Amino acid sequence: MGDDHDNDEKNWESILTPRQFNVTRRGGTEPAFSGPLYYEKRDGEYLCICCGELLFTSDMKYESGCGWPSFHTEHPEAKITRIPDFKYGMIRTEVKCSSCDAHLGHVFNDGPREHGGERYCINSASMEFNAGGDDDN
User: Fold this and answer.
1) Does residue 65 come out as left (phi exceeding 0), alpha (psi in the -120 to 50 range) or beta?
2) 83 pairs with which residues across the strands?
3) Could you tell me if 49 and 99 are in contact, meaning their C-beta atoms sit under 8 angstroms apart?
4) Is the pLDDT of residue 3 over 80?
5) Closest CA to 104 of 17, 11, 28, 10
6) Is-contact 67 123, C-beta < 8 A?
7) What are the distances in angstroms from CA 18 to CA 10, 33, 58, 92, 112?
8) How do residues 41-59 score in pLDDT, each as one tens digit?
C-alpha cells in the first residue's frame, strides 16, 4: 500500500509545478495577492488543476479583498468536500476536490449575504482557468 501512495506522490510531483503540488497535495497556501487567478476578470470556468473538475464560474467570483480568488457559490455540478480544519489554532472549513482529493482552500461565513453568505477563498494554484467555458451557446 505504501508504494501506491509513493507512486501517486511522485506522479503528482512530475505533473504539477512545485507551488501547485504544495497547495493541492500538501495542503499549502500560496501568498496573498500572488496568484494570477486573483486578477482574472474574463468570463469563464475555474477547474481543478489536478483533475479538471468544474468548480466555479466567473459569475460566482467576486472581489473580497482577501488576496485569493473568492467565490460566493460553488458550481451546482462541482464535487467539493468540506472538512473541519483546526490547524494553527483556528477553526476553519477546508474545501477539497472530491474527485481527486486536491486541497483547494477554505470556505468562510463572511461572503455576500444575497448569495447565501459564504466566501470560498481558493488558491490560484489549485485551479486552471478556461476562458469562455462551455456556456458559449
Assistant:
1) left
2) 94
3) no
4) no
5) 28
6) no
7) 12, 18, 26, 25, 33
8) 999 999 999 999 999 999 9
- At 83-121, the pLDDT tens digits run 999 988 888 999 999 999 999 999 999 999 999 999 999
User: 67 Cβ partners below 8 Å, 6+ apart?
Assistant: 31, 32, 33, 34, 38
Q: Which domains does the chain have, with CATH numbers?
A: 2-131 (2.170.150.20)
Instruction: Tell me the three cell numbers of residue 52.
Output: 479538471
Question: How many whole angstroms from its chain centre is CA 57?
Answer: 12
| Catalytic status, residue 121 | yes
Give 37: exposed, middle or buried? Use CB within 10 Å, 0-12, 13-18, 19+.
middle
| Residue 77 DSSP class | T
Q: Measure CA of the first residue to CA of the last residue in the chain; give whole Å.
A: 46
Cβ contacts of residue 101 below 8 Å, gap of 6+?
Answer: none
